[in-house]
Automatic annotation (TrEMBL):
InterPro entries: NAD(P)-bd_dom_sf (IPR036291), SDR_fam (IPR002347). Transmembrane segments: none annotated. Signal peptide: none annotated. Keywords: NADP, Oxidoreductase. This is Short-chain dehydrogenase. GO terms for molecular function: oxidoreductase activity. Belongs to the short-chain dehydrogenases/reductases (SDR) family. It comes from Talaromyces proteolyticus. It comes from the Eukaryota.
């Protein structure tokens, strides 16, 4: 059982006794212990990305922090980061070219990456929109661009892995993946119609889980591990597409309000996956509340933290991997 199980048993709202990201670093005894290590984090200009970077900066690692708006990210983190150990990289996840440029920039500065945290994302885009490369916006932003970034940084992740410190990939997914799995190979972009904001988001978050599980299957034996996670319900800019009436209704739900986390708490499971001793030499699991999740019902409840029947599916994971390689224009070099 997780050491944090009791803290999560009866939540009382943001700022309650549930752990923060910084508490995880302290509890794991990792303050100042990652000097010389390299961590890459996407989406560090807002929300839990800021708090993930804030907490991991205390480990002494060198941080490569990506954001579409670098000025915003620098302003958000100016007070807590060591300039000599921090690099800000422009990355627009709506563009494969931007992903490639960001990866080149990182690899020009380091040939080893110890931890990659795919944190950035968008949620519940109300109408069918597309990335600069012509892919459905949520699937392209949340999955395809992170998949491409991983592939480009993969040699550095493998090169960094040692017997003492295996490399890790952490994909921030969501309980919204419980809504549905992934579409058929010829319908990832809803070419056949039927676009729905939450179905699309659910697909992209399932894809985050499948990617992590497949990384573990393919590269775990080579010292590169991956996990995925649900960070919890957090009031951040991620909810900007949700209609105001829906938000008002949520805020009137006292039970729901009690489950909400602060951004500092919302980053805790990410940090636990990234540096926790529990995940030193293994992965391939979907996490929530600083614990491995349990099997739950296929009820479509996006507030549930358990995994469902499609959360783990080796056949779909492999299919998505191969399809994603083709989409981003790469071949696998296992």
């Amino acid at each position: 059982m997780s050491r944090y199980a009791a803290a999560h048993a009866s939540p009382q709202g943001a700022g309650d006794s549930r752990p923060t990201a910084l508490q995880i670093v302290k509890d794991e005894g990792m303050e100042g212990k990652l000097k010389g290590k390299v961590i890459v984090i996407t989406g560090t200009s807002s929300g839990i990305g800021i708090e993930t970077a804030r907490a991991l900066s205390t480990t002494g690692a060198t941080l490569y922090l990506t954001a579409r708006n670098v000025i915003k990210a620098k302003a958000a983190l100016a007070d807590i980061l060591e300039p000599s150990l921090t690099e800000f990289i422009e990355l627009d996840l709506e563009s494969f070219d931007s992903v490639r440029t960001a990866a080149r920039t990182i690899l020009a500065k380091t040939d080893k990456v110890n931890i990659l945290i795919n944190n950035a994302g968008i949620m519940a885009v109300p109408d069918l929109q597309f990335t600069k490369d012509g892919h459905e916006l949520q699937f392209g932003t949340n999955h395809l661009s992170h998949f491409l970034l991983f592939q480009l940084l993969k040699p550095a992740l493998l090169a960094a892995s040692t017997a003492e410190f295996h490399s890790r990939v952490v994909n921030v997914s969501s309980s919204a993946h419980r809504l549905n799995g992934i579409n058929e190979s010829d319908n990832y972009d809803f070419q056949k119609g039927g676009y729905n904001a939450w179905v699309s988001y659910g697909q992209s978050k399932t894809a985050n889980i499948y990617m992590a599980s497949e990384i573990e299957r393919r590269y775990g034996s080579r010292g590169l591990h991956a996990t995925s996670l649900h960070p919890g319900g957090i009031a951040t800019g991620l909810s900007k597409y949700i209609p105001e009436a829906e938000i008002v209704a949520m805020l009137e739900n006292e039970t729901l309000i009690k489950t909400l986390k602060s951004p500092e708490q919302g980053a805790a499971t990410t940090v636990w996956a990234a540096i926790g001793k529990e995940w030193e030499n293994k992965g391939g699991k979907y996490l929530a509340n600083c614990a491995e999740t349990n099997s739950g019902n296929d009820d479509g409840n996006i507030s549930g933290t358990d995994y469902v029947s499609h959360t783990y599916n080796a056949e779909s994971e492999a299919r998505l991997w191969e399809d994603s390689l083709k989409i981003v224009g790469l071949t696998d070099d296992q």
